[in-house]
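Lab notebook, bench 4. Still working through the backlog of constructs that have no structural model yet. Next entry is a single chain of 251 residues. Request: give me the structure tokens for it.
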Amino acid sequence: MLVAHGSRDPRAAAATRALATVVAAARPGLSVRAAFLEHALPRPAQMLAALEGEGRPGAVVVPLLMTSAYHGRVDIPALLAAARADGLRMPVAVADVLGPVAGEVHPSLMAGLCRRLSEVDGADGGFDAVVLAAAGTRDTAARETVAYAGAALGERLGVPVEAAYASAAAPTPGEAVARLRAAGARRVAVAAYFLAPGRLYETAADSARAAGAVGVAAPLCDAAELADLVLARADAAAAPTPADLGLVMVS
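Model written out:
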């Protein structure tokens, strides 16, 4: 069960469902479903009950989250506990979030971020610095994982990369762009540490463009690399028999 927050922006749910389709195509025979913590239906408990009603032997929960902040540490365990209290008996495994775990950034995440950057208008001219724009969190440990991802992206691209946040933490993407430009960068691009479009993504993009960013990458959405990462997290959680388990996507 891929678990993320959900959004009032209908494009976010559409992106989640598109990702579900790509994951299913990448692993024929695997049952892939989408559900949402907020703002859209079905809810995770509803989907788990449906899977159990279908006679599925188990499910894997893969959080559609870039950091292990409140939703990963509190909401997901709470919803699973509530489902158990309501009578769920089907085994459910919980995978790691999509972002860095124990300081390790999955290669598929890096590949997806780089591909989205390569799709930015003017990417053929190259960039001499990049801002990794994330939604934002007050959780210090979660922000550290964004910094890990930024460091890995900088190593991959061979340019300075600075993490920035649309809300809840500093710097903003605009502030990060301005700082890099003040340090001598002339072509600063923005990598989107977002799974789907929405208000916070637009806030980050507008802030960066206003400060002089030459391009802003699209969210990961249904990138094939993101589907690979989803399956890798599911496989690790479901070992040794991931192919026998249903996969529920929750956003």
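Notes after review: The chain has a mean pLDDT of 90. The helical segments are 10-26, 44-53, 70-85, 107-118, 140-157, 173-182, 199-210, 224-238. Flag for follow-up if needed.
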